[in-house]
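Re-running Profilin to confirm reproducibility after the cluster update. Everything else is unchanged from the original entry.
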Amino acid sequence: MSWDGFITKIVASGKVAQAAIYGRDGCIWALSPGFQLSGDEVKVILDYKKNISSLKTDGFTVNGVKYTLLTVAQDQCMLIGTAQQGGGVYISFTKQAFVLGTYTHSMQPGPCETVISETAEELIKLGY
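Result of re-run:
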């Protein structure tokens, strides 16, 4: 399956600045151009349930940008973070992957969350 179409659709919405889809094994499925997480960043995201307290105090990084954890929406399996310089990140998990999207200080957080959540739901419906 080609995952690049998902990233193109996410970013073309105008509600997400950069996006990525990673497998739960840490492998890259698709990325926005110039956007990539380090191995350590992926590991922190994948292990978030084990590290909630440290994520709340220390935050986490995505593509080298530090985010403060705002909330963990367990019912949606979603991490929500905000950056010091404005903007934020939404990360939504499926059985086999996670979908991540960032928004800038000039973008609204709600629409970014919607696009990322809907993309994750689409992957879930496809069996991922």
